[in-house]
Amino acid sequence: MSENFIKIKHVHFKYKGSEKGLLDDLSLTIPKGETLLLTGASGSGKTTIIRLINGLIPHYYQGDLEGSISVAGYDIVKTELYELAGVVGTVFQNPRSQFFSVDTDGEIVFGPENIGMETGKIKERKQDIVSEMHIEKLMGRSLFELSGGEKQSIACASVAALLPEIILLDEPSSNLDQGAIGNLREVIKRWKAQGKTIIISEHRLWYLKDLVDRVIYMETGKIRHEWSGWEFAAMDSEKVRSLQMRPLKVSDILASDFAGSDIQTQEISDGVVLKDFYFSYNRKPYLIRKKKFQQNDEGLSLCIPKLTLPKNTVIGVIGHNGTGKSTFLKCVCGLEKDCHGIIETDGKEYKGKERLKICYMVMQDVNHQLFTDSVQGEVLLSMEEEDKERCDQILQSLGILEFKEKHPMALSGGQKQRVAIASAIAADAKLMLFDEPTSGLDFCHMEKVGGLLKSLADAGNTVLVATHDPELIELCCDYVLCIENGRVGYLRVVERS
Hints:
alpha/beta, 2 domains, 15 helices, 30% helix, globular
């Protein structure tokens, strides 16, 4: 380690329109070449520190700022954002917010092109990055067709292509499967070996515990704890849990050879039956109209002739990034209009748009389903009959009652996620579908979400939850349904010790 490369001194910051400050007399120095982990509860100030370092505060996010921020010799307050482009690279929690192109190749070379790099060097840089990150299969594709995890991989690659001295990652693993997290870990190791200064804001800790040099624990805008990398890696599970951090070790429950007991359709006496769920992103009409399909038809993005789900349970939908989990959920609830599957439950059949009557889905990117100008209004919109008292109870159970008068788009990513979950609970649908509901959530709020999913099943709902979080599966799931390339891999019981 060498000189203090990043210096934050006595910073107080309050976002414009906020009643109280978020950072309170924060001082932090980061030596050149250090790999630093920022952790702590949602809303504790981690992302705000990231925004101070990359200059988004005060040049994009306005508010009351006191104190000084120096990054690689630049006074952040006096430095324009474009001057930091080759010095600081940021991978945001929602990768869609940083895309400039419509295809994967264009996105990776956008940065080098924008700073005027020679064509030959751009091609060489792209080839090196694609090889380092093992994302060859993502090349030549539309960004709009990628899964959330695949988009995150492209975002990491586009930042790496600029070879910045400082790399900031805000919840980089939130939408990644364990294989992709392993690739991300290897990329961070390479950056570390190259002498990059790396700051990571993260709730998932297991893949970083023996990689970081220092760990900062944030709470209500202050640094409450600080550990060296080896002290953090050696921390016992009781201490981790007392600080409401996610575990430093995870099970193999998401592994492809997960050894739970297989469930056969005949074992499910009273279930929700899915029939004739076929879908293709190629939009060839004959594929949609055909009555019968071959199970191994490679032209189909989703091919499920029949699947019986145990009623009144929580079923974790697992599988690698891009394997069809989100497509499966969208087809089930009727969001993909070209998928004409049938749902049978309680002696009734629901076809096409009728499926919307009994299904409610919380999307991976909740910004797509927030419509009103207040959190309370968002939840009331999902109710057949407005019930403000029940609305307050739901918001209280999710820890967001204090925000009920706020505009949903003014909230943090984790808070928005909880608003969408509150709307799902208020809708009281028979079949509830959640796409990565705990991505970006701290352990405390993940436990709350897990408890709520379990209570939904106990109340008579069948819950499907696509997830990459083994912690969530262990908390609340009764079964895991593995989706492999749009086909059912297996349906198994989650066996707890």
